[in-house]
Structure formats: C-alpha cells, structure tokens
Amino acid sequence: MKIIDKEDLDSFVADMIEKGEKEVVGVQEKGHKYAFQELKRAEDLRLDYDVTMLPPKKYFMPQREDLLEYEKDEDLSLEGVNEVVPRIIIGIHPYDLIAIEQMDRVFSDTYEDEHYLKKRKESVLIGVNMQEVSEWSFAASMGTATTDYGYDLMLTDLGDRYAIEIGSSKGSDLLERYCVDLKEAKSEDIESVEREKEKIKESFEKEFEFSPESLPWLMEQGYEKKEFWEEHAEDCYSCGSCNLVCPTCYCFDVQDISDLSLGGGKRTRKWDGCLLESFAVVASGENFREERSERYRHRYMRKGKYLYDMFGDIACVGCGRCSSHCVPDIADPTVVFNELMEEVR
Ligand code: SF4
Ligand code: SF4
After folding, report:
1. Residues 132, 23 share a domain
2. Contact, 208 vs 215, CB < 8 A?
3. pLDDT tens digit string along 267-316?
4. Which end of the chain offers a freer environment for a tag, N or C, measured as fewer CB atoms within 10 Å?
5. How many domains, in total, are found in the chain?
6. Is the pTM of this model over 0.85?
7. From the alpha carbon of 322, which atom of ligand 1 is closest?
8. Do 304 and 277 share a structural domain?
9. Ligand 2, atom 7, residue with closest C-alpha
C-alpha cells in the first residue's frame, strides 16, 4: 500500500490529462447528481459522490455501437468497426467494480465478445472506497460495499491523504509513469484503511432480512406466486429504466440497417431491457412475456437465480440505481426480496 498527499493526487490526475496518452474519465457533478464523464480538469473530479446516474459499463458496452459495416460489390465484404478508446476511469465504487467483474465473465463465456473485451483490455480502473452512501443502496447486504479485487488501483480517503492499494501491474505501471511523490504506507495507515472500510459497511440503512445466498432458493419457491408478482407489478410502466441503469444488466438488441441504395449497410447493437414490452417478441409476432407481471418477475429471476445458475453470481450488487430511477417506486430489490421471503416462509 502507498500513500499520496491530496494535492499530489490532483497533480497525478492533471498529469494524466495533460499527457493525453489515454482518455481520462472521472466522476463529475451534474446538477444535483453525478456522472462518469471525460475529465478536462483535475479539479472537476468528485471522489465524494454517493452514486452515479449510469454505471461505468457504458464505456465497455456503449448504449449503441456498430458491430460491422458491409459493402456489396462483387464479393460481399464484412469489416469490423470496433471503436476502442483506451481509458483511465477514476472513482469507481466497489459495487461497480464487482459488477464489471461479472460482466467480464458474461462477455467471455461461451462466445468471446471482442467488442466488449477489447475495450476492457484497454482500460485502467481506479476505484475509490465510498465516502458517501446513497440512501437507495444496500451494498453491505450484498457483500459489495468494499472489495479486494476488480481494480487496478484503489483509493481510500484518510483525511489529508489517500491510501492507494495496487491491484494489478496496470496499476503499478500507471503510478510509476505519472506519480512521483508516493510514500510507503505505515502500519497505522493500513489500520486506518481497514477502519474506514468497516465504517462504510455500517453506513447503510437499507438491507436484506436474510442472506443473499438464499436468493436462488427463494426465487425457485416464489416463481409460482402469481398474485405476489401481479400485485407488485401493478403500477409498472414497462419503461425499462430499472434495466438500463443497472451495472449487471447486459441485454442488447441487434439490428441490420441497409443503405437506401442497398449497396451496403451496418449491423448495430443497442441496450435492451427485459421490462420493455417488446423484449420477448419473436419473429412470428408471438410475445413470450406478454404480461407485465411476467416481465417484472423475470428481472428478479435473472438477478436472484438465472445468472447465479449460469455463472455463480448473484446479479445484483446493491447499488440502488434501479429503485432511485423507478417513478412508481416499485423496483427496490430489498423490498421485493424481503416481502417474497415473508410470502414463501
Ligand atoms: S419497475 Fe419501475 S423502472 Fe422498472 S420498468 Fe417498471 S416502472 Fe419502469
Ligand atoms: S438490480 Fe438494482 S440495485 Fe441491483 S445492481 Fe441492478 S440497479 Fe443496482
């Protein structure tokens, strides 16, 4: 572990921006909210935010991206169009780092998705332990309030200085390249970091009333509770916001778009969400999840069971973005899972 004074961290960030070898992205204030955006000035970086509107997954899986372009001539030619911008992303909270680890598993499982994986490979992730906790978050219940993995560097605020944990060679290379004024951490610094982490875990108001390890079992028991799902989905607008802001949701829709001349075109993909009415419509026009309550239930099944069955991960990291973005306030996983547990007990 290393120690850096706060003003030296500012110089470190300013130096990375100035040299411009990679795009530097950091959390910045936007009105009363926060967003990951390209940093133009080190002083705009906010490491004391509670939660960002969108998770950093947008840099590896953009809202819309071209997968290929094609030209029709004598032979049909297909050309890849993966736009990879090498980035240093600063200020990622532990729950978002764990979500990125989950996405890495998804996109390198049976099919290696080069569009996602190349962007990931070219990125450096600098995490920060939370200084503010969102009122919607329940990361402590999900074991994601702190993390020992998933970052290249991890910062912890210790008042007049930051502790820096090094998680990879990408992280140590970055420090060597840009950061001159580092000190070795003393044993009291290491103890302070551990104290800060414990303090964070105790700062959450929302929580599960049972261990998340029971979720796969709970979802299996609760699947047939038709009235429960209908009642909870009654006010759902099928807007899909809860899917789109989620750091572990990765569904997308692929479209082929031809030029008007039919001489070429492109294949694009854009974010999709299982709460949207058209999500499970197939070519014949049949909708496999026509009812709102079926779509609503499906999202919780994915979070608590389906992805666990495939990858061993509970696909909710407790960031709370889904509930904070849901206008009728019916998307809070702690409410739904706690009430379902009452129902099946
Ligand atoms: S649960 Fe809320 S955010 Fe999700 S689709 Fe329904 S209304 Fe929209
Ligand atoms: S389901 Fe909600 S709380 Fe869980 S990771 Fe997704 S957005 Fe965050």
Report:
1. yes
2. no
3. 999 999 999 999 999 989 999 999 999 999 999 999 999 999 999 999 99
4. C
5. 2
6. yes
7. 3
8. yes
9. 246
